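Sequence in, structure out.
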Amino acid sequence: MRIRRFITNPYQENSYLLIGSGGMAWIIDPGFYTASERRLLQNFLQAEKVQLVGIYLTHTHIDHILGVRWLVEEYHLPVYYHANEEPVYAHAAQWAQMMGLAYEPGPPATAYLQGTETLYLDSEPIQVFFVPGHSPGHVAFYAAESRNLLSGDVLFRGSIGNYELPLADYNTLMHSLEGLFLRLPDDVTVWPGHGEPTTIGYERVHNPFLASRL
């Protein structure tokens, strides 16, 4: 399992390729906004002979979905997110207008993620965790064999997701994080929706929102 991070759009959002051993890949939270960002992805796919097989969204805030429609039109990909994200996804165009972003709405979900299932990428299991609080249908993706967690915007290095947004809730977010930390070993690398990677072990000790509660 390989992970390739692309830093995209005005919000410096982390868009990820999760690449299996056979060259199949999921694209997670595609925030690709500018023509140069999109070319960079295309050049990587061609050079590395990577085949995209699906778009998986941790949540549907505008900075995480700016490339969805382009990717679907370019590569004919299915789109997956949690059903509780529908109100957020439905209002993405309004958020884009407020933020001064050009945005063309993407298609609806091909199928919903449940937040309890195990999916497979080139035979490697990927667990889907339901972790609401930053957004009502937020999920995270955990590759246990390679010890990688794609956390979206629930957990950052030394911080947690914004809980003051519409449909966000602090207590729900903390409950999600505490449950997530109880499941995972310290050596798991955390790939967040913004900023640099971290580890579960580092956050247990150094994250001021979590260290006193775990």
